[in-house]
Fold this sequence. Notes:
alpha+beta, 5 strands, three-stranded mixed beta sheet, two-stranded antiparallel sheet, 2 domains, elongated
Amino acid sequence: MTKFLFHDKIPRMRVPQPFPYQGSKRGLASLILRYFPKDTETLWEPFAGSAAISIAAAAARKAHHFVLNDLNAPLARLWERIINDPKGLASDYERIWKEQELVGFDHFAMIRDQFNRSGEPAQFLYLLARCVKAAVRRETQNCNRKETKGSYRSHSGP
Length: 158
């Protein structure tokens, strides 16, 4: 787990989520924050996902420090890039996004296959953005493809 200190970087306002994620607690965040104890030093979000609770708590100044954790390693690596290297991530993402104009229809499958080999956070962000309702799924069986066990797939791409 990594301790992220981004309290001072978020002004008091409605903060947009950096990416959509299934199971997000964003819609419940204001209700959940009502039950926070005063003067929370560290908020531990054990199932971070889109970190909706941490982002809402930071924007509302409900805690001083935040620890994001998620079993999904690519998601955890994406959060590390968002927090520690946002400009680099944005640059990598922009390159991937612009590539699709050159590559065409096969671009999604190409990025998905590259991501399954590399786990690159910018590629994961692209897949989340392109999948319907961020419905990235993990393959656990062959599905008539070469070794797909543990790889990502989506209903929106080939």
